[in-house]
Automatic annotation (TrEMBL):
InterPro entries per record: p53-like_TF_DNA-bd_sf, T-box_DNA-bd, T-box_sf, TF_T-box
Domain of life: Eukaryota
UniProt-recorded name of the protein: T-box domain-containing protein
One Gene Ontology term of the molecular function aspect: RNA polymerase II cis-regulatory region sequence-specific DNA binding
Localisation: Nucleus
Keyword Nucleus assigned: yes
Any Pfam family matching the protein: T-box
BP terms from Gene Ontology: positive regulation of DNA-templated transcription
GO CC aspect terms: chromatin; nucleus
Keywords: DNA-binding, Nucleus, Transcription, Transcription regulation
Domain T-box, residue spans: 1-81
C-alpha cells in the first residue's frame, strides 16, 4: 500500500562512519483514508480523504527508523543501489 523509500546520499567521506536514520512524522493534524476508485455513476472519488483527527504524535524514539547497516563508512553507503 505504501511506496518504497529510496534515498540518494552524496558527498560522504569514504572512511568516516555515518548513521542513516529516517524520521516518520505526520504531515497534518488529520487522519486520512483511501476511498477507492472513481465511479461517476455512484459519485465516488478516487484517492485519499479526511477521516477525522490525527492521533497524538509519537515520541521521537518511536518515529525513528535506524538503517540496520548503521553505522557504516561513507564508501559502504556510496556502494548501495
Amino acid at each position: 500500500m505504501f511506496p518504497a523509500i529510496q534515498v540518494s546520499i552524496t558527498g560522504l567521506e569514504p572512511n568516516v562512519k555515518y548513521h542513516v536514520l529516517l524520521e516518520i512524522s505526520p504531515t497534518s493534524q488529520r487522519r486520512h483514508k483511501y476511498v477507492g476508485s472513481l465511479d461517476e455513476a455512484k459519485g465516488k472519488c478516487q484517492g485519499w480523504t479526511i477521516a477525522g483527527s490525527a492521533d497524538e504524535q509519537s515520541p521521537i524514539h518511536k518515529r525513528l527508523y535506524v538503517h540496520p547497516d548503521s553505522p557504516a563508512t561513507g564508501s559502504h553507503w556510496s556502494k548501495q543501489p
